[in-house]
Fold this sequence. Notes:
Elements: H1 24-34, H2 38-42, E1 45-52, E2 59-60, H3 62-72, E3 77-88, E4 94-103, E5 108-117, E6 123-130, H4 134-141
Parallel strand pairs: 1-6
Antiparallel strand pairs: 1-2, 3-4, 4-5, 5-6
Amino acid sequence: xxxxxxxxxxTMFAQGQIEGIDQPVIGAYFDALNDENYDAxxxxxxxxxxxxxxxxxxxxxxxxxxxxxKAEALGxxxxxxxxxxxxxxxxxxxxxxxxxxxxxxxxxxxxAWQFRLNPEDEILAVTVDLxxxxxxxxxxxx
Length: 142
């Protein structure tokens, strides 16, 4: 009889492992992304949440975001390193910026993520910016 080992989901980032960030929903985002648990990840967004990936149009709504991640993010691992709160609006929305690296199957690249959260700690928007030179990106195409 074969026993299948089950491992608990990684919760490294949700436990506060991003320097300067104490926002559990941001940690949960990275944990779900790295676990390829895109259904859990999109539940962190508000109903009309937006994901702005590099080089693509914005994805609006949980269903569109989940579809995109299931097609484009398999095998990707995010390594956020440090971040900061950039702004708090009068309405209570907060904007955070996090910097780190993303490991893709063929290469890794420095990345900046910008998260906008509402007062209920739902993700309103995530913008992902690659921090690579044009020469570096061209090299990856070869």
